């Protein structure tokens, strides 16, 4: 019976149904597709794919559901559907609503590629129930790719996993999200593993927004000298944009933190730090190591005015501070400075 159907009329009919969004007639036409040959089935697939709408996607999904009864290969339908999803990511919801179909797709990686935020609840549910390590890592990466800050709490749990690949996957996902709560979660993870800590410091140094620079700055307070020095190196490499944050450190009560901050300001050589260091010395901090670090920093900075602060250091009660002040004077040895000392 169906062999007598004119194939061109058949295709023209579905094209007209698509144009008019006539579901009743389209359902009737599609109901015959399994009895048509591979060429007609392929032309039907092509006709449906030309209009990327909910209407046509639903029929392509139907073709996928009945693929076992068709002459064309299932892979042709999957490839067509994937192309349509890439063009219109919202269509992925059809797959999320049909678990049997989602198994035919590499849906996790597809979601990641599309960065489809509508899939977040689906991914979180799968994350909670998944047992396979590689799938967990793929889900974590997909959530990172989407970048929804609401997923930070769920991802942060993996920072404390006993499984290192899961920890590293969570770190990278939080890096991709890059929100303030993601950076805070990474900051809280620091302190138990140098390799992990160093990777987190690298992330802060890479992002370089205000929140990440402040997080990197807080690493200066860590008790791990190796990590602290690594953070100092990163701050110095970043350059002048960290100067305002480091200057604020000079008001802190932690003497070691202040000293490290002075070291950084000296290495950066930015003249905008001079006034803050001069004010610190004017207040005469009781810790001689702070005064020493301050004069050492000033010795590496261009001092254009207020040079009297250097000469005042020559009368400091601590010998090392006096020597640091003398070196600073020598490095800033200008006629103006010599006049100020006389």
Short description:
With 342 residues, this protein is mainly α.
Folded structure, characterized:
Helix 4 (54-65) packs antiparallel against helix 5 (74-87). The model has no long low-confidence stretch (mean pLDDT 90). Among the domains are: 1-104; 239-342, Leucine-rich Repeat Variant, CATH 1.25.10. The protein is an all-alpha fold. The protein is elongated. It is built from 23 helices and no strands. The protein has helices spanning 7-20, 23-30, 38-49, 54-65, 74-87, 93-96, 99-102, 107-114, 120-129, 133-146, 152-156, 164-177, 180-189, 194-207, 210-218, 225-238, 243-249, 255-268, 274-282, 288-298, 308-313, 319-331, 335-341. The N and C termini lie far apart (114 Å). 68% of the residues lie in helices and 0% in strands.
Number of alpha- plus pi-helical segments: 23
* Class of secondary structure makeup: mainly alpha
Q: What average pLDDT do the residues reach?
A: 90
Q: How much of the polypeptide forms β-strand, as a percent range?
A: under 5%
Main pleated sheet: none
End-to-end distance, in Å?
114 Å
Strands, total number: 0
Low-confidence stretches: none
Q: Which value, in Å, is the CA radius of gyration?
A: 33 Å
N-to-C order of helices and strands? HHHHHHHHHHHHHHHHHHHHHHH
Report helical residue fraction.
55-70%
Shape: elongated
Organism: Caldithrix abyssi
GO molecular function: oxidoreductase activity
Protein name: Response regulator
InterPro entries: ARM-like, ARM-type_fold
């Amino acid at each position: 019976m169906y062999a007598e159907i004119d194939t061109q009329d058949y295709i023209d009919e579905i094209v007209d149904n698509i144009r008019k969004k006539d579901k009743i007639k389209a359902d009737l036409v599609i109901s015959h597709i399994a009895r048509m040959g591979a060429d007609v089935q392929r032309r039907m697939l092509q006709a449906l794919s030309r209009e990327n709408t909910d209407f046509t996607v639903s029929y392509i999904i139907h073709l996928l559901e009945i693929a076992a009864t068709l002459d064309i290969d299932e892979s042709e339908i999957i490839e067509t559907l994937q192309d349509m999803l890439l063009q219109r990511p919202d269509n992925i919801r059809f797959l999320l609503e049909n678990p049997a179909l989602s198994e035919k797709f590499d849906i996790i990686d597809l979601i990641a590629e599309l960065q489809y935020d509508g899939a977040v609840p689906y991914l979180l549910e799968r994350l909670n129930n998944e047992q396979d390590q590689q799938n967990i890592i793929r889900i974590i990466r997909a959530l990172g790719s989407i970048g929804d800050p609401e997923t930070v709490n769920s991802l942060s749990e993996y920072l404390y996993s006993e499984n290192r690949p899961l920890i590293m996957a969570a770190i990278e996902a939080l890096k991709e999200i890059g929100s303030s709560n993601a950076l805070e979660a990474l900051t809280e993870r620091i302190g138990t593993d140098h390799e992990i800590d160093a990777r987190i410091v690298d992330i802060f140094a890479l992002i370089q927004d205000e929140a990440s620079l402040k997080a990197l700055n807080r690493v200066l307070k860590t008790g791990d000298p190796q990590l602290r020095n690594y953070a100092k190196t990163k701050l110095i490499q970043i350059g002048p944009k960290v100067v305002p944050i480091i200057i604020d450190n000079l008001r802190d009560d932690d003497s070691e933190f202040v000293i490290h901050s002075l070291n950084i300001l000296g290495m950066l050589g930015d003249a905008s730090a001079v006034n803050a260091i001069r004010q610190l010395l004017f207040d005469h901090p009781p810790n001689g190591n702070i005064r020493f670090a301050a004069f050492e920093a000033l010795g590496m900075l261009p001092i254009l005015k207020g040079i009297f602060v250097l000469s005042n250091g020559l009368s400091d009660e601590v010998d090392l501070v006096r020597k640091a002040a003398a070196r600073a004077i020598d490095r800033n040895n200008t006629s103006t400075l010599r006049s100020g000392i006389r």
